[in-house]
Amino acid sequence: MERRYSTYTVEELRAEVAVLKEKLQKAEQWGNVSEYEILQRKMQMAAAYLVNPADFEKGERYELAGDPGQTFEITYINGVFAWGHRINLLGQKFETEEAVPLSILGDKQS
């Protein structure tokens, strides 16, 4: 049975991210798109436990890693997830509220 990332130590999380990054590069080299997507999500989840939720503020907008031009406005934070709405280049807020791992949020937007 696989352990939950929430039970890992910081050192174990860093090691897991490193292993996943290596597997991710191999999947990319082999052109295995589905494996690449799965590994990327796993790496984002493991990395989310290395981020301090206190570094993020509700009501603020942040860059979305890997999604240029879109930002994310936080409604609330629950554990290692930020809940809120994506905002496109035109400043239009998506209706659907979603949860994203804190690890994919970049710099705060003004």
Automatic annotation (TrEMBL):
Pfam families, alphabetized: DUF1811
Entry's transmembrane regions: none
Entry-linked InterPro entries: YfhH (IPR036289), YfhH-like (IPR014938)
Name under which the protein is recorded: DUF1811 family protein
Organism annotation: Gracilibacillus thailandensis
